[in-house]
Here is the input.
Amino acid sequence: MIDKQHLIDLKGVSKEFDGTRVLSNIDLYVRKKEFVTLLGPSGCGKTTTLRIIGGFEYPTEGTVFFEGRDITDLPPYKRRVNTVFQKYALFPHLNVQENIAFGLKIAKVPRDEIKKRVERMLDLVNLSGYGKRSVDQLSGGQQQRIAIARALVNEPEVLLLDEPLGALDLKLRKEMQLELKSMQQRLGITFIYVTHDQEEALTMSDTVVVMRDGHILQIGDPKRIYDEPVNAFVADFIGESNILRGTMVRDELVHFSGNDFPCVDSGFGENAPVDVVVRPEDIMLVGEDIGQISGVVKSVLFKGVHYEMMIDTGETIFKVHSTVMQPQGSRVGINIVPFNIHIMKPMPKEEPQDV
Here is the structure.
């Protein structure tokens, strides 16, 4: 039974290439008007998942549904989706408006309607007046906007984006992140976005799907993924973390770095091995005499909005982010409030688990 709120459903989808399994029993749904990001390292299966949704690859096993209808074997041109690739694939022999209009001409849309829709798309991507220009005269960011306009002019219900900002410099990439999110909200259509960039995923997404080795490890909104990672891989991949081996003494008490720390987690049993995550920004540096533990500042780096300090307690080296710098070589105390200690079941690094 497919939920009526689901636009796309992947059920038990697996994919093999030459006998090598790159996707393993993926279950995933995407709601209408949602911005979903598939996030993970190279080779995790995120682009293959996107290509299966777009119809460019067919699953070895499993089913793809669109509004409850089985579209597993439907070719790309019969699906109500369009794709923007990292390499924009613009036609160099056509000008900007001809590139945008290309799909409409193939579909034999009337000329007046084509002109109206192309002008609307140029306005949408803030490139009004650029219609007669050669695409070779455009910057990378402008070419990316034209590729998006060409995909959107056909009025798809879903836009698939495969690392479309990867070729842009850092400043332009950050600007385009905000612009893409704003565009998606104004249009009210579904975006499915592929990236290996954690900041992009956290900045733009309603829902983040973290993948590794052909498995989905965790699905959730950006805050939940960041604050409550399900395992050490997700914690390490999403932002910077101190990931430590510890022992759950009992509910709401965990032992790590040679000390017992109150926490808010429960249900792990008594004296059970656990992984402990503490984000660098969640560690408070205090006087040595009032810290839960103490250590020596081994290094200090200025990172623009904060200082990054490595604190050696003898048992553990903690990474700490703070707007107040402590001099290298000084002794400091470390305090961590219970809410900022996140407990997870240990996970073998080389064997990702289905969630």
Summary: The chain has eight helices and 20 strands. The helical segments are 46-54, 96-106, 111-124, 140-152, 170-187, 198-204, 222-227, 232-237.
